[in-house]
Amino acid sequence: MSAEETSHFVRLRVDLVLEVQDEDAVTKAALRRLARDAELPESERAQAEGAVTDDTAEALAYLVDPFDLVSEVPGVDLQQASWSSERIDYDPDSPDWDPDEDDGQEDDEEEDGIG
């Protein structure tokens, strides 16, 4: 593909596994961020506060912002982002643990001789 045909858009996939050592600290940080969010309507604020208080994974999803990850990268402009968090069973030593198990793309690229 020539430079003129190459897309200027790049999908960056990041998969993080975090160990929460202090759920209370995470919840408090999310609540502080909610309190500082002047653009959040009051009707949504109460719902968000309940969600981050009830579920540490929700609190983390509120604290981790993809824009923050790329905002200082020169020459890029975030076009779209989506993210979620969930509690998982994690054992990196288990033969069943495969960080790429949901990503068949890598296997396809290897078969095509790309990866």
What is this entry, summarized?
The chain is mainly alpha-helical and 115 residues long.
Structure description:
With 115 residues, this protein is mainly α. It has a domain at 16-86. The chain is 41% helix and 0% strand. It has five helices and no strands. Residues 106-115 have low confidence and may be disordered.
Characteristics:
disordered C terminus; 41% helix; 0% strand; 115 residues; mainly alpha
Rg measurement, Å: 19 Å
Number of beta strands: 0
**What is the residue-averaged pLDDT?**
83
Shape assignment = flat
- Low-confidence segments, ≥5 residues, pLDDT <50? 106-115
Structural class: mainly alpha
In N-to-C order, the SSE pattern is: HHHHH
What's the tally of helices?
5
Work out the strand percent. Answer: under 5%
Characterize the largest beta sheet: strand count, sense, and whether it forms a barrel.
Answer: none
Task: State the helical fraction.
Answer: 40-55%
Architecture blueprint of SSEs:
Elements (H helix, E strand, L loop, with lengths): L22 H14 L5 H13 L1 H8 L2 H5 L34 H7 L4
Helix pairs in contact: 1-2, 1-3, 2-3
